[in-house]
Specification:
This protein is about 40% helix and about 15% strand. The radius of gyration is 24 Å and the shape is globular. A ten-stranded mixed sheet has the order 1-2-3-5-4-6-7-10-11-12, sandwiched between helices. The protein has a two-stranded antiparallel ribbon with strand order 8-9. The chain is of the alpha/beta class. The longest helix is centred in the middle third of the chain and has 24 residues, at about 265-290. It has helices at about 10-25, 30, 40, 55-60, 120-125, 135, 180-195, 195-200, 210-220, 235-245, 265-290, 300-315, 330-340, 350-360, 365-375, 390-400, 405-420, 425, 470-480, 500-515; strands at about 50, 70-75, 85-95, 105-110, 135-140, 225-235, 250-260, 320, 325-330, 455-460, 485-490, 520-525. It is built from 20 helices and twelve strands.
Length: about 525
Amino acid sequence: MRSVLAPSLSLPLAATLLACGLTGCASRDEAAGRPDLTRYYDQEISWEPCSREQDRTVRDETRNAGRTAECARLTVPHSYDDPAKGELRLALMRYRAADRDHRLGSLVVGFGGPGASGLGQLGARGPDGFGKAAGRYDLVAFDPRGAGASSPVRCGTGDGLPDAARARDDDADGAGEPAELADRIDDRAKALHDCAKRTGPVLPYLGTVHAAKDLDVLRAALGEDRLNYLGYAQGTRLGAAYAHRYPHKVGRMVMDSVDDPAPDLRRNALARTAAYQKALRHAVEICTRRGAEDCILGSDTDRAMETVTAAFNRLDEHPLPWVNGTTLDREAAVTQTMGLLRSREGLPETPNLLAAIVHRLRPGEAAHMAREAVARAGGKDAGDRAGAGSVTASVNCADTRSRYTADQVASAYDDFVEASPVFGPALAVGMAACTGWPQVGDDGAHDVAAPRAPKILLHTSEFDPATPVAWLRRMARALGPSAVTMTDTGGGHGIYGSSDADCVNEKVDAFLLDGRLPADRTRCT
């Protein structure tokens, strides 16, 4: 009698199944010639109150988190292609869902920067800073590899880079006259070159591709079949990289303040410079629309912009006495103004700051409010904590091959000034953000096509200065049919969870909680 058997198997498949039977199904990767990652994917996370954490960096990052915050560690390999090259432990933090009976799972938050501590930012914002998501999701943040308490990149002493060589390509780097550019870029290149000998073996394994693979290990360790993810700024690039590599593991994914999927330092620095100028004009126009009686800048937007530009230029030679016995020079004025423009809450304070600069007024309460707003603006993507400049460079430089010399920056200087006479002189140096970085960049992270992923919600404010709205459209095209886009007219950067963004919050909440998407190209007004 003929035996009833399964159809004959090909030799490769039979070998794979035999290996599975002998060593466990997860070792199919080894049978197929891929490294066995079973021990990473089979991890169970052991949470405990952050206040008990022995790591000093974690304690510092979570000092504002309150007693309900929990912390843990997750082990990942330096290289997923060759785990024998070493491993590191990612620092994690979570707030448990308030409504445990109706919990939807975990929502991983990627704050971007890159370089910002996820633990520090989640703790600073607290569970109430994310719309209604905290009611139904465990909010989970992480320090990405190379940042915070996750094998941080080190490039010298102090905060990682000399003040004149910080890696924040979207922050002011001081006055940038062409004659000064070469010295600034040279100082920066020396600081970045120093990263290789101070950081250790993790340095070659930074960047968005490696971080996307970390996200999948985190998803598995959280016990989730699919990754629910909320990304801000560079965190959107991370989410896109994940969707490209693991489309069938994508759950509900939101990208807020969408980054350029294929960064080039010259193009990005110029686009961001123009976006800051656009946001500045928007802030001035909010004031001038009220008329001369209610706006100290007057009622003519064009004339007000000319006056503001002249006032910033005047600060080069004549700084303004400022709060707490300090002076406001051009560098400080640019930095504070940029901070206000990034902050949805701080944006209304921008005309008051500009009026003080224009009329050379002794600052009063408005200046203090401006400083507080700048600090709040750093809560979603700032890299102002220890070592942040270093890791910002490490991720950005890992994700692009673009490298520009001081001569090339000097040649492009007039383009930056034309894009923004206020911010261009400071932001031109961002074009050389990776000059001197000791590793070769990889454009592999630029491919984020995810046609097989479920729908992904993308949002950017039309007046976002740090991630221009044009990048929203670039990312949508790159992702493909999975992208659903939304904009709003309120200004600011990193909007979801802001107290005065009702329309955005409502639509993001509807998607995260109920799976209801807005129509593509929705515009909140």
